[in-house]
Structures are given as C-alpha cells and as structure tokens.
C-alpha cells in the first residue's frame, strides 16, 4: 500500500515566507489604519475626537456629522456634478480607446506603426499647461462641462493595454470567419469583440472612472461657476482652505463647535466622498486583475 507523503518545505523557504507575511501585515496596517481612524472619528462625538480618545473604534457613537454633511446643498451639487463627469466622461474615454485600440491591433491596418509613433510622442513631449489652456479657451470650452471631458478624453497608456489585449485575445481567424459569413467590421466589433473583452473593459472603466472621480485640477483651471464644481473641488475648499459650509453648521450650538465639530465634519466628508469608489471596486476586481495581466504582460 502506498501512503501519501507530503514533501516538506525547506526551512529557509519557511523563514522567507514568514518574513513576507510579516511585511505584508505591516503594509496592511499602514494602509488600513488611517482609513479606519477616519471612519471611526466620523462616527464619534466631537468631544471624543478633540480630546484624542478615538484611536481605533468609534467613541460615543453618533451620526450628527453625516446629518450635517447631507444638508449641504454645495456638497450635494458637487456630488451630482461628479457623477455626471464620471459617467459620461468614462463612456467617452472607453468608446474612444476601443475605437483606436482595436484597429491598431489588426495586422491589416496600413500605417499603424506611424500612428503609434505619433501617440507615443505625446507621452514623452507634452504641450504644457498654458498651451492646453489656450486651446481649450479657443474651443470655447472654458466654464463648460466639456472642459472636464475632452482634454483628457483618451489615455495612450490605456490604448496600449487595450491594443495588447485585442492582439492576444482576438485571433485573426475569428475575424476572417466572421467576414466569410458577411459580418462587417463594425458589427464584428460590437457583437464579437466587445463581449469577449469584458476584462479589459472593466480595467478601463475602473481606471477612467477613478480618474474622473478624483479630478479637481481641471476644475480649478477651467471652471468658474459654482454649479459646475465637482465634489473634489468642493472638498478642497472645505477641507484645505477651511471654508466651512454655513449650511452644515447652521443649527450647531457654539459649544459643539468649540468641541471640534468641524473636525468631525471633515472626517465625515472624506468618508462620503470615498464610498462610491470603494463600492465600485469589488464588482470589477475579478476582471481587473485578469485584464491588466493579459493586457500588459503578454505584449
């Protein structure tokens, strides 16, 4: 009778593995603790936060800060604008990236190497902030939503990743078989290529969406009207410039303000601004890893 015998791992490998786990645990604590502290502080009383009683879990749990945050019309308008910028901006980004990356992945496209050279040129040599601003101004996009969408409508890095994915995942024989059945290129792209490209589409959606959600510098340069400001720009004014929204603290007693209520408000605003991206990531995480690995390594 044969008995199953497990090969013992060498001692050096075990020690090395233990060091790796310890190192990853330290990194996890360094990344996780600030997030946990902010969430706990936002759910604690202002007196507990100002006295330094909060270090891990909420102390004297209350939701006054969140109630005050959601009363702010300025913050809610920023939320609305950011959703608009993120949804429509991501759609524009993904459509343009696919329309450029897929033709570049096909061998029969004439001059694709020259197109790639021009695109790579823009990566190494940028026109700069002032020429870009003058171009946006001449196109009459200053203080319009288009200024948040069009100047960064396509990322060369994403085009390269998507092109590599199409090259390795969509064989030319599939295109030839579809053509023999009378399928044209555009129909082939919509009906066959895109359904087979969910991982890379998930990667692009996450990358572009997070970029739009966190963008505030473009708003700082191109936008003038408060009703167009995105959430990150509003948060910058409230958190960094300490320009507290009067609607948030309108019904707050002076004693509560003295106990550091505005500090708790800042923590609550950070949590509210981060939740949508944190909720989006688990849904695309599975495709995200696969898409990045195929799109970057096999090229």
UniProtKB/TrEMBL annotation:
Membrane topology term: Multi-pass membrane protein
Q: Which SUPFAM superfamilies match?
A: MetI-like
Going by the UniProt record, its keywords in alphabetical order are: Cell membrane, Membrane, Transmembrane, Transmembrane helix, Transport
| ABC transmembrane type-1 domain: residues covered | 79-282
One cellular component GO annotation, for this chain's record?
A: plasma membrane
Localization per record: Cell membrane
One biological process GO term for this chain?
A: transmembrane transport
For the keyword Transmembrane helix, the answer is yes
Which superkingdom, per the lineage? Bacteria
TM region(s), chain numbering: 15-39, 83-102, 114-134, 186-210, 264-284
By its UniProt entry, which InterPro entries does this protein fall under?
MetI-like (IPR000515), MetI-like_sf (IPR035906)
| Family that this chain belongs to | Belongs to the binding-protein-dependent transport system permease family.
- Known PANTHER family for this protein? ABC TRANSPORTER PERMEASE PROTEIN MG189-RELATED-RELATED, POLYGALACTURONAN_RHAMNOGALACTURONAN TRANSPORT SYSTEM PERMEASE PROTEIN YTCP
The name of this protein is Carbohydrate ABC transporter membrane protein 2 (CUT1 family)
- Higher taxonomy: Bacteria, Bacillati, Bacillota, Bacilli, Bacillales
